[in-house]
Amino acid sequence: MKRKKKFVFNWRKYFFETLSMFIAVVSAFALSNWSQDRRDSNAEREILKAVVNALNNDLITIENNKSGNIFAKKSCVYLRDLITNKPVNQDSIQDYYNNVFADFSFTPNKTGYEGLTSKGLDIIKDDLLRVRITYYYNYYFDVLTKIEEQNEAVQAFKNYFFPINNVLANYMEFNDKGELIEIKQPIEISELDKKKIYSYLWQLESSREFKIMIYTQLETQLKVVLQHVKTTLDEMN
């Protein structure tokens, strides 16, 4: 009678096979996560670079517009002094006169932010940076957009340029190219015309002062965001 062959379970063999499969699965999962993290980091880096470029362009525009409004406000003072027959420098008369009515508009550059939202805001790991970028683009842009939509400077040009120009035209001197070179003094106009011009200049100055305040706040906020983005990029490199 034949003896049945005893079955011996080779636990070592199956243990190492199971361990090998486990290690392979975990490694594949880890590699997949690493690859995804790397793609996300690269995407975050590229988005932040685009944000930096957009913010730099915005900062230049804001600084120029702020300076333009400061000079426009100064031009209102110049024109008021001219009308009251105070001594003024006529060499820059054309610049001052033009800037009393000049318009300095700001068109926000949302390229970087649009790229960020298309990828998903969560791609930025720094919570504070994400909040700052979102607040800058959503809150400050909305405020500035509403101001630009009102377009007070263009409206002021329509409302105030011609009444002021009609009063001062008799005192203007032009060169052969048709450029304003002098507004002769003394300027003798009625008290009513003088008060009207003063009221126009006061409203123009108030509008400039408001825009200067908004641009100053926006400039401060933008510089904070810009520095935070640059610091984050430096840490990623």
Task: Give a verbal description of the structure.
The chain has 237 residues and is mostly helical. It has one domain (42-236). Helices cover 75% and strands 3% of the residues. It contains 6 helices and 2 strands; from the N terminus they run αααααββα. It has a two-stranded antiparallel ribbon with strand order 1-2. The termini are far apart. The mean pLDDT is 81.
Topology of this structure?
Layout: H1 11-83, H2 93-100, H3 111-119, H4 127-150, H5 152-168, E1 172-174, E2 180-183, H6 191-236
Antiparallel strand pairs: 1-2
Could you give a quick summary of the protein structure above?
With 237 residues, the protein is mainly alpha-helical.
Determine the strand fraction and express it as a percent band: under 5%
| Element pattern in H and E | HHHHHEEH
Can you summarize the main beta sheet? 2 strands, antiparallel
| Secondary-structure class | mainly alpha
Describe the structure using short key phrases:
237 residues; mainly alpha; two-stranded antiparallel ribbon; 6 helices; 75% helix
